[in-house]
Queue: 2 jobs
Job 1
Amino acid sequence: MFSNFVFAQSAPGNIRFNLTFGSQPVEIGKNYYSPATGDSIKLEVVKFYISHLQFFRDNIPLAVLKKQHMLVDAGNPETLHFPIPEEAAGKFNRVVFNLGTDSLTNVSGAFGGDLDPTKGMYWAWQSGYINLKLEGVSKACPARNHYFQFHIGGYQSPFPSCQIIDLPAIAKNDLTIEVALDSFFSQVNIAETYQIMSPGQQAVSFARLFASLFSLAK
Amino acid sequence: MKTLLFYLLFPVLLCLAFAGKTGYEFLYPDYFPTPVYDFSKNPLSTERVELGRVLFYDPILSKDGAISCASCHSPYNGFAHTDHDLSHGIADQIGTRNAPPLFNLAWHTSFMWDGAINHLDMQALAPISHPKEMGENIENVVRKLQHIPGYPGLFYRAFGDSLITGEHVLKALSQFQLTLVSAHSKYDNVKKGKTQFSQPEENGYALFQKNCNSCHREPLFSNFGFANNGLPVDTTLYDFGKGQITQRKEDSLKFKIPSLRNLSYTYPYMHDGRFRRLSEVLSHYTHGIQENETLAAELKTPLSLTPDEKTDLIAFLLTLNDSAFVFDPKHQFPKEILQPGEGLLKQ
C-alpha cells in the first residue's frame, strides 16, 4: 500500500505544481509563520488557472498539453499534477505556459470543465475569468476578521492580467514547478494591500508578482 | 458477444446520437445583418431552446424561489418590465437600472446598460448573482436543478448528459433568448413589400432617418454602441454607466443605445426608466439635453422638431411595434412543463 503511494508520487512523466511556504508544502487552513510580517499566515484559498502549457526543446515546440485550461487548487491534490505528453517526454528543456486565461477564452461565452462558471472563478458583475484567487488570514491585514482577498483577473487592454511564464527545464521525465508563496508575503505589505477584486493596474502588478513565484524546483 | 452488446446498446447509442439534435432553424429577414452570436459554439436545437424556456420562467433560479428571469422580462412587455422604472428583485428590493427588453439578442455585441457583459452566455450570471435581483449563485442553481425530478431528464434530452453543469444552464438560457427575434412589425412588413406606410408614418420615417438613424440604426434600430444622450444625472442613483466599468473618463455617462422596436410595450424609457411617454423622450431630445464633456457629437445641437413633426415621428416609431412577436405563444410560459407555484411537472 505504502509503496504504491510512493510510486504514484514519483511516477515518471508528470508535471507537478509544488506550492510551498518556506520549506513546507502549502496546506489549506494551516498556519505558517511569516518572517516578513512577523505573524502567522493562514491560507484559505489558493486557486489559479494554468493554460496553453507547451513543451519546447530550445525553440522547437514539441507538444502542447491537451487540456488547454487547468484550474490548480491548493485544496485539491488531484489538480496539482498532469501527465507529460509522449511527444515531449524526456526531450524537452523548456516549458512555457500562461498563468491565467487568454483574452479569446474571456470573450467566447460559456465553457465546461475547469472553465465552468460554477468553479467560482468567473465574475458575475463584469465578464471575465478570475485568473487567480488568493485568500487567507493575517493579523497584519486590517480588513474584517483580518481576511485578505485577492481575486485577480481582467483581459482587456490596458490591464490584461494573464502572464506568460517561460521556465528552463531539465530534460527528464518528471518536472516539478515550485510556487513559493512565502515570497509573496515578503514582497506585499498585507497591512496596506489586502483586497483586489477588479481588473486594473493593481491587478496587473499582483499578477506579475504572483508569476515571479514560479520556478523550477531544484 | 460484441454483436449482441451492440444490439443491446443500439437504442442507447441512438438516443445519445440524437440528444438535443432536433435542429432549430434560426430565421431572420434578409435585410438583417449577419448575427454576431457564434451559433457554431452553441448549436440551436428544439430540446435546448425548450429547456432554456423552462429555465427562463422558473423562479428556482432565485435564492428564495420568488423571481424568475420573466419576472422582469415579461413576454407581454417585449421582455421588459412595464411600469417599473427600476428592476425589482427578491424580497421586494429595487435595483438601480431599468430592465431592458429582450429581442434580437443574436445581434448585440455587449450586454447590460453599461456593457459590462461581453457575451450572451455569460449575461445570466449577473442577474442570478446580484443581491438585489435573484441573490443566488450559479453553483447553487446547478445543485438545486440536479435535485428536482425532471430537470436531469430535460438536460439529458438537450445536451446528452443528465449531470447538470453551469455551462449547460447558461447555454440553454442563451438558446431560448436567441429565438426571441422581433421582425414582424409594420416596418418589417413594409420592408418585405407586404404593406405601405401611411403619410404621417412616411413623414416620420424621413425624420427618423435624418435625426435618429446614426445611433438607432435600422433595421435593428440600434448600432449597439454606447452614448451619452445628455440626460442629467439622477442624484438618487449617481449612475455613470460605462465609465464605471472601464474606469475611463471618456466613457463617463455613456449607456448602451437601446433598440426602438416594441416601444409601446417596453415603457418606461431610458436606463433608469425616467420617461413614461414617448413624447417626453422627444422633448428631452429637443429641449432637455444637458451639455457635458462626453455628450454624443450627434446631440451637440438639439433636435429641432415642430409639434406636427413630433406626431409624425411617433407615428413612425409605432410601426416598430411587433405584436406578432410580443404575443407569440412559443415564447410564453411553458405551462405544459412548468406549473406556477408548483415548479417543474414530473417528466
Job 2
Amino acid sequence: MDLHAILAIELPTFPRNVLLVSTATTSPSRTGAAAIGPAPFAARAAITRAAAGIGLYAGAFGVTFGAVAARSGLSVAQAVALSAVMYTGASQFALVGVLAAGGSHLAGLSAALLLGLRNAFYGIPVTHILRPRGLRRMWTAHFVVDESTAMAVAQPAPRAGRYAFWATGLTLYALWTLGTLAGALIGSGIDTSALGLDAAAPAIFLALLWPQLSQERGRAVALGAAVVVLGLIPLAPAGLPVIAAAAVAILAGLLPARRRHETEGQ
Amino acid sequence: MNTVWATVLVASLGCYGLKLAGVSLPESVLSHPRVQRIAGLLPVAMLTALVVTDLFDANGRYTADWRTLAGVGAGAIALRFGRSPAVVFLLAIATTAVTRAVT
C-alpha cells in the first residue's frame, strides 16, 4: 500500500487539527485554506514557526498536566517521568485520572495503552517519510505523537517532512516536559480550579476527536462511547468506563464498510 | 519502589513499545483495513470517554459543574469555527475561570 492510500484512510483525522495550529501561528488568513486540505509549507521558516506555536501551547498544556498530576497524588518525579518517557498526552491524562479517582493500577495502565495504540499506526507514514534504520528507529519512535506525525505528513516533500517531524517532535517534547515540571512544582500551591484548568483536558480531548465527528461512523462511536460511559459511572469501578468505551470502537470497526467514501476497497 | 512508580514505568515503556512497534513492524500488519479502522476509532471512543468522565464522574457518582461545562462548551464553539487547539485551550480555561470568579 502506498503512502497516499494510507493517508486517505486514517490520518486526515488528527492532522487536520494540528494544521490549524500551524497556520494560526503563521498567518491567520491561511486558516481557511488549511481547513480544506493540507497546506504545503515550502519554507523551513514557516515550519519552524508552526512548530514553535505548537510547542508554546504544549508548554501551557504541560503545566496543566503537571498540576493535575501533582494534585492527583503523583510526585514531581513521577509526573515528569510520564511526560519524558511516556510522552503522549492523552494516555498520561487517562492514567493520572484513573489513579486520582481511586481506580486500579491495571485499569489506569490499560487506558493509557489503549489510547497510546494510535501512535503505532502513525508509524506507517512516519516510516515512509523518515525511513529510519537500525538504532535510529528506537530514537525516532519516541517522538511519534499526534502533532509531529501531522506536521510531517502535511509537507509536500519528504525532506520538508523530516524537518517538520523533528522540529515539532523535539520542540513539543522539550516544552511539554518542562511545562510538566513547572506545573508539578507549583501544582499543590496553585488553585487549579480557580484558573479554570479543569476545563483544559476535556476541551483538548474534544479538539483531538473533533475532526472524526464530521464522519458518520465517528459520530456514532462517540455517541455510543458517551452512552456506555454515562451508564457505567455509578456501576463500574473507576477507570473501567473508559476501557469499556474501547469495546464500542472495536465493535464499530468490525462492522463492514459500506460508505462510498471509505477507501479500504472492501 | 512503590506501585505508583511501577505503574508509571510499565505504562510509559508500554506506550513507547507501541510507538516502536509502529516504526518497526512490517507495514502489512498495520495496514489491514479492519485493523486501521479500529485503530482510527479507538481514540474517538476513548477521548469521548475521557471527556464524559472529566465532566460528569465524581468517583462513581454523577456530577456536573456548569462552569467547567461552559468552558468546554466555549471550546466546542471555537472548534465549530475552525479554531486551533491553542485557541480552544485558552478559551476553555478563561471561560471557566471567569464564570467561577463571578459566581
